[in-house]
């Protein structure tokens, strides 16, 4: 643990733009004073008077830390043939790759810096042309947005062959869908029109006699025919007997 002191701090000079400070403290063990100054040049503190600097090596193991070991180790012996081979490869790479590349870069730099005014004029001219094209396109887009009531933040695509083809395919797809919808509506209308007389005919058929009535009418007709065969004059036996009694 260290000891904290109340020090008299004052500026005593500068090292270039860095100030040099002096700290004068009173010892806590005696009545003596000691003075320490900063050393910006060597990035350290210097004891000027009243004390003596003490150099101590800090051991991590003694303070609960881990020991620091040399991880590099001894360098392996260098093989002279391997070193020569590496040097030869480096020279070949420098001669065959790096030197031609540097010459190309130098020629390009010379070409670009030969006439800076002409190059700048060409760039400005190209910029003005592109700006005019963008302004015309913006005016055309604004006209379309105002005409169809589109939002101003909507970005329109540039008209090219691909966009025209996609728009045509989308229009054809919409036309086919509309034709299918109209044909389905027409078929539905035809079905409704045909269904109306069928319902009326069914109502007429429902008013006809049922099969049970047919059987009863057939039975009555058979009995009537049988009676006619037994009495060809069309009169019943009871009526004949009554007539006979009256005549007697």
UniProtKB/TrEMBL annotation:
<dbReference type="GO" id="GO:0071014">
    <property type="term" value="C:post-mRNA release spliceosomal complex"/>
</dbReference>
<protein>
    <submittedName>
        <fullName>Uncharacterized protein</fullName>
    </submittedName>
</protein>
<comment type="similarity">
    <text>Belongs to the CWC16 family.</text>
</comment>
<dbReference type="InterPro" id="IPR007590">
    <property type="entry name" value="Saf4/Yju2"/>
</dbReference>
<dbReference type="Pfam" id="PF04502">
    <property type="entry name" value="Saf4_Yju2"/>
</dbReference>
<dbReference type="GO" id="GO:0000398">
    <property type="term" value="P:mRNA splicing, via spliceosome"/>
</dbReference>
<dbReference type="GO" id="GO:0005684">
    <property type="term" value="C:U2-type spliceosomal complex"/>
</dbReference>
<feature type="region of interest" description="Disordered">
    <location>
        <begin position="224"/>
        <end position="248"/>
    </location>
</feature>
